[in-house]
Every structure is written in C-alpha cells, then in structure tokens.
C-alpha cells in the first residue's frame, strides 16, 4: 500500500483512534473502583466533619471509613412528605458495604426539586433525600446534604441537625469552582462555624445567608464579604433543600416535644409522690 496515499492516511488514523480509545476505556474501567472509593471517602469525611462539630472533643481520624462504621446509627432516604424509605448500609458488618451518596446523586435529586418548584408537586413522593444519623458521644445528629448552583459551578454541603429537628450542630460546605479568596471561603471554618447553634426557621425563609446575618436572627448567618452571589446562592440552596427535609425534621421536633412533656409529667408525679410521703410521715 502506498503510504503517501489518502487511503493509507485514513486507515492509519482510524486504527490509531480505535487503539487509543480502547486503551482509555480500559484505563477508565480499571481505575473506576479506586475513583468510586475515593468519592465515598470524601463524602464520608464531609458527613463526619459536619457531625463532629457537635462536640469539640471529636476529631476526624485518618480511617474515616472505620470511624463512620463506628459512629453511624442509621442512614436512609426520605421523600418530600417526610416518609422514610430505603435504608443504606452503614458498614456494621462489613465496612466495604458502606453506602453514601455522591454529589452526582445530589445533583439528580436537585433536578427533581427544580421540577417540583416549577409546579410538578406530584414528584414529592419520588424524592429520595439522604439522611445520615450519627452518634457523636452522647449526642445524636441527623446530617442532611444540600446541593445547588454557585457563581461558577455547583456548590454543596452537609448540615448536622440536632435531635430536636431545629438546632444546627454544625455544617460544612464545598464547591467546584468558586473564586479563591471570595466565594471559595464557604469551605473555610470562619464561615461554616457560624452555623453551630443556629436554628431552622419555619415558613418561606427557613434559613438565610445575608450580610449582617439576617440582623442576628437565629435562622441566618453572615454572608461572605465580596462574594454576594455565592452567599445568596448558598442561602437559596440551604433554604430550598431544608424545605423538602422539613416534614421529616418536623417529625423529630414533635417526638422531642412529646418526650419533653412526658419527662415533665414524670417529674411532676414524682414530686407529688414525695410530698405525699412527707405529709404521711
């Protein structure tokens, strides 16, 4: 064959492209398990980092998978009506079986949320929002994720909610391409440490990220100076996702109220009994 002919060039180029594509496909396939494991570890680290803020004595170990298997109490999905669905494996028997959801999964849920926001309310029951229940020493926290659009790309985070379904025990955020020194500060401690001790509100404005921290309101934190769009986007993301977690969080609040009332009633009965015994004596 004439190596200077157009036919030879086309055949040679085609074979080269096929070989390179096959090599790349094989490499991607071979590396995928490792990539998936790294994504799992990153997600676990973020979940634990949010939960651990409930107790300053807790530090994240290097073996985050083993730490998660030890501290996780439960993990499951809830729909937009607060109904608990399928449970995830938390690795009590085998750490390799731990299941957590990546940002790609959160993006898919966010796409459904957008449709619901646009009026397709029938999709509420199709939501499957992750909840990670973590035991932090004597405290139990529910870690819930959020995902949305920042200035230049996606932003996401994990928020630790106390057993009362209202109080925030911690939070951590991350991004793909926000501006260094500005919007990227959502991933830094001076920003996310503001969330500890805050509360989710009710109504249309569950939480806010604004200049002045919503004038000191319990359900707001101070925005990042010079990063107005990223701050507003994060506030919108948190508020939107919290709205669809709210039915589940309300059930936690109701349970806490019931337990508090029962405890108060028990104490009152005990006081009455003590007073009766004293009078008899």
Defining key terms:
281 residues, 6-stranded antiparallel beta sheet, two-stranded parallel sheet, 6 helices, 8 strands, 47% helix, globular
CA-based gyration radius: 25 Å
> How many angstroms does the end-to-end distance come to?
117 Å
Domain count: 1
Helix/strand-derived category reads alpha+beta
Shape: globular
**Strand order, largest beta sheet:** 2-1-3-4-5-6
Strand content: 15-25%
> Count the strands?
8
Question: Which residue ranges are poorly predicted, with pLDDT under 50 across at least 5 consecutive positions?
Answer: none
Largest sheet: 6 strands, antiparallel
Number of helices: 6
Average pLDDT, to the nearest integer?
Answer: 89
Helix content: 40-55%
Order of helices and strands: HHEEHEEEEHEHEH
């Amino acid at each position: 064959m004439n190596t200077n002919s157009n036919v030879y060039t086309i055949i040679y180029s085609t074979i080269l492209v096929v070989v390179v594509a096959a090599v790349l496909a094989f490499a991607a396939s071979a590396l995928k398990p490792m990539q998936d494991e790294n994504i799992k570890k990153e997600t676990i680290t973020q979940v634990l980092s949010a939960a651990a803020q409930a107790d300053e004595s807790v530090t994240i170990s290097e073996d985050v998978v083993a730490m998660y298997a030890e501290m996780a109490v439960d993990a499951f999905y809830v729909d937009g009506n607060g109904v608990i669905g399928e449970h995830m494996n938390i690795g009590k028997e085998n750490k390799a079986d731990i299941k957590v959801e990546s940002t790609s999964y959160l993006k898919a849920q966010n796409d459904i949320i957008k449709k619901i926001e646009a009026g397709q309310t029938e999709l509420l029951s199709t939501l499957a929002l992750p909840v990670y229940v973590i035991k932090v020493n004597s405290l139990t926290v529910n870690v819930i994720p959020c995902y949305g659009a920042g200035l230049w790309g996606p932003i996401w985070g994990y928020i630790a909610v106390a057993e009362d379904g209202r109080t925030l025990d911690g939070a951590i955020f991350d991004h793909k391409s926000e501006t260094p020194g500005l919007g990227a500060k959502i991933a830094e401690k001076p920003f996310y440490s503001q969330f500890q001790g805050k509360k989710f509100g009710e109504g249309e404005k569950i939480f806010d990220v604004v200049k002045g921290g919503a004038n000191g309101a319990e359900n707001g934190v101070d925005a990042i100076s010079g990063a107005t769009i990223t701050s507003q986007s994060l506030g919108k993301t948190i508020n939107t996702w919290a709205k669809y977690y709210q039915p589940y969080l309300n059930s936690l609040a109701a349970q806490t109220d019931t337990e508090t009332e029962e405890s108060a009633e028990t104490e009152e009965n005990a006081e009455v009994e003590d007073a009766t015994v004293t009078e008899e004596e």
